[in-house]
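Late entry, pantoate complex.
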Amino acid sequence: MHIVNTVDALRVLIHTWKAAGERIAFVPTMGNLHAGHCQLVKAAKEKADKVVVSIFVNPTQFGVGEDFDSYPRTEAQDQDKLRAIATDVVFQPTVLEMYSPHAKTVVSVTGLSELYCGASRVGHFDGVATVVCKLFNMVQPDIALFGLKDFQQLAVIRTMVKDLNMPVEIIGIETVRETNGLAMSSRNGYLTPEQRQTAHVLYQVLCQAREAILAGNGDYANVEQQALLALQQAGFQPDYFRVCRSNDLASAQLDDTELVLLTAAKLGKTRLIDNLSFTR
Ligand code: PAF
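Prediction complete; structure with ligand written out below:
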């Protein structure tokens, strides 16, 4: 497994593979890898000849007072995990390698980036779109794989790729969950043992809301209110719970059939997000 820290070193490898006609898959991460990330890499291996994984805790997607400094950095363990699943390259740039202090360009997917998580984390999705755009330019992948857990992030990236005619196929991979339903996330590591007993309720409430809709409740505002209440009663401080259309994340209307429930809630200091897609 190659470990590279510079764009120049990465480009040498990419150039060689492209010249040999090899198909390149890319999995961008911020490290602290869990089973969900490994699932992305395994899916990437099945679909391409070479797999590049980036590990970069991207400062531009964290707001003031968020967890950029405390975000878990576990390089050695991450490299071991990636080596065990036959990753070809780990790209681990420094902040200076990624961002010139003189850079003037930001990629912004307007509208979508201001909704839901974007409303509470102002500028977050501009940071995500900008770093993913830069990483795509560096890696030049044929395909890139992202977890469906970050449903809004995936929608932002798909929109960016379409709007900017980027020659990369975006593939969403199913969320990996603990046996109790809790979606795997690097931020789960912030939870206390007691909070861990409660965290799976986020998924339970999503499932209950889906059942209510499938049983015929078409009053989506009511479904959202019930869900928010259930989260509060379980000890969460909910940020939002929304019934959306899956293709553009607008509020769902009664004639929409492809739905996604999106939610974010804090448990103590930890902000958890999750979602559930289904056909009505
Ligand atoms: O989902 C993540 O880990 C990050 O948002 C990403 C896509 C690697 C960009 O920094």
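Strands lie at 2-4, 24-29, 50-55, 89-91, 143-147, 169-173, 237-245, 258-267, 270-279. Will revisit in the morning.
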